[in-house]
Design a protein that fits this description.
Elements lengths: L1 H18 L11 E7 L4 H16 L4 E8 L4 H11 L6 E10 L1 H6 L4 E4 L4 E3 L5 E2 L7 E2 L3 H21 L4 H6 L7 E3 L2 E4 L6 E3 H5 L1 E2 L4 E2 L4 E2 L3 H7 L7 E3 L4 H10 L3 H18 L5 H19 L5 H19 L6 H16 L18 H28 L4 H4 L26 E4 L6 E6 L2 E7 L9 E8 L2 E5 L4
Parallel strand pairs: 1-2, 1-14, 2-3, 3-4, 3-5, 4-13, 17-19
Antiparallel strand pairs: 5-10, 6-7, 8-9, 11-12, 15-16, 15-18, 16-17, 18-19
Length: 475
């Protein structure tokens, strides 16, 4: 028993060592360079997402962020941080030339930071942008300042702690009232936001003489690859495509909800009209474009498309093959709604989609806005079209609105008045409908009153077009 316990403790110790081992570079994989250039916005998230996914598939040696940014959207910054978390290979940031604001937060989310000689990093305090286009930045009101700064401090400190950087140094980039010094060495006095040059970031501080933030200063990307020992690897630079620019518009609010509503509305109109035509094709095309945009954005995969097709198939079975509306139809609608929801939520590399930690609250909010807005727009448009569309000139040309009558010479069947009074026999039992034989003529008839047995005498009492009513002659 003691030996078994000793072996178990050794195994646990080994597993703990493996679990906390730093990311190691693959011996043969390529190096992926992802540009972080210009303003950080959702379009950049798509590029980073695609680059990270490709790097994971190719078992890359490392990812290097080639960064020159003045900052940008905090929600996009947080999504990029999630994409870079928990990868099995090292990540680097090459500050070339600026990593300001959101750029500094992203840089602190990588394992190592290198800078070019004129590089700068820091100044990550959040600012409020004017809701008016071209309105520029605005000062955050005093009552809301701490509410805006506190989550950003937690974000940047968490990024620094996960990657082994100094969390206090990171906080000094956000809070101007925060004094940061190491021993007697004042790095950033109170009243200033911390922004470091390449020389400041790589200087050695503390008793252990460790670099303040930067692992070194290099003149270009080639020099960086040589310094980190990856100069002989294939370098793959990820670039933004025109499809990703289009996907940004499709994925964003409110176009995503409008496009989805238009597709669902066309399918609803097709369901309410006979046959299959332009509205059905348009609905399928619009939803296909919607899914394509989310697929290019890295959100919707084949799983979501398959789930949508299963939902549509179940609805088809419920409508055309099974009477009423029950479990099949409800399951079909559930599959369709689930596919639309999953197609608007990011799936991070290496993390299952069902884990709450892998779901970004901002994306859930955007999903609710797009899906809820799309369904509401579909409902309102359907009600309005059902009320006003039949009265339009175009719709009137597609349907018959003129009534015809017998007075105008229109009849649904040939006249049968001359048959009244004919006598014959019931060729089949009349229960109450059956066949009567009148000389050499066999007619479909219906008995009036009680049922008539086969072979009994009958007489035609009434005729109403194709409806011939018979009775016993003695009646």
């Amino acid at each position: 028993m003691k030996r078994m316990m000793l072996v178990g403790l050794c195994l646990l110790s080994l597993l703990g060592t493996v679990a906390h081992a730093p990311a190691q570079a693959n011996d043969t994989g390529p190096v992926y360079v992802i540009p972080i250039q210009g303003m950080i916005e959702r379009a950049l998230v798509y590029v980073v997402r695609r680059g990270v996914n490709q790097a994971v598939r190719d078992n890359a040696s490392a990812i290097i962020l080639d960064m020159d940014t003045p900052g940008g959207r905090l929600d996009a910054c947080e999504e990029i941080m999630h994409l870079l978390a928990d990868l099995d290979f090292p990540t680097y940031t090459f500050v070339n030339t600026d990593a300001i604001s959101a750029g500094a937060i992203i840089a602190l989310s990588t394992d190592h930071i290198y800078m070019e000689p004129s590089g700068r990093i820091g100044d990550a305090m959040p600012i409020m942008m004017s809701p008016i286009p071209m309105g520029g930045a605005q000062e955050i009101p005093d009552g809301l300042k701490e509410k805006a700064i506190s989550p950003t401090v937690a974000l940047i400190r968490g990024a620094a702690q996960r990657k082994g950087h100094d969390a206090d140094l990171a906080e000094a980039m956000v809070r101007p009232e925060y004094e940061y010094k190491i021993g007697d060495d004042m790095i950033c006095p109170e009243g200033q936001l911390l922004t470091l040059t390449s020389q400041d970031a790589e200087r050695l501080v503390g008793e252990e003489q460790r670099p303040l933030l930067s692992s070194g200063t290099v003149k270009n990307m080639d020099a960086l690859l040589e310094v980190i020992g990856l100069g002989d690897r294939e370098v793959i630079t990820v670039k933004s495509s025109a499809a990703e620019d289009i996907a940004r518009m499709i994925d964003g609010f409110p176009l995503s909800g409008i496009l989805m509503a238009a597709g669902l509305l066309c399918l609803y109109i097709e369901y309410k009209t006979p046959g299959f035509g332009i509205f059905g094709l348009s609905g399928i095309a619009l939803l296909a474009v919607w899914f394509w945009g989310h697929h290019v954005a890295g959100l919707a995969g084949m799983g979501e498309v398959l789930l949508l097709l299963i939902g549509v198939a179940l609805l088809f079975v419920e409508i055309f093959l099974i009477p009423g509306f029950g479990i099949t139809g409800i399951t079909g609608l559930t599959c369709i709604l689930a596919s639309l929801m999953l197609a608007m939520i990011q799936h991070y590399p290496g993390q299952p989609w069902y884990q709450p930690a892998s779901i970004n609250p901002q994306q859930v909010q955007d999903m609710i806005l797009n899906l809820g807005g799309g369904l509401l727009l579909t409902f309102v448009s359907g009600v309005l079209l059902g009320r006003y569309l039949p009265a339009t000139h175009t719709f009137q040309r597609l349907m018959l609105t003129k009534a015809v009558s017998a007075d105008q010479g229109y009849q649904a069947s040939a006249p049968t008045d001359e048959l009244r009074g004919l006598t014959g026999t019931a060729e089949t039992p009349l229960r109450p409908a059956g066949i009567g034989l009148f000389g050499d003529r066999r007619l479909n008839v219906i008995a009036r009153g009680e049922f008539i047995d086969k072979g009994d005498a009958i007489v035609i009492a009434e005729t109403h077009g194709n409806r011939i009513v018979v009775d016993h002659p003695e009646s």
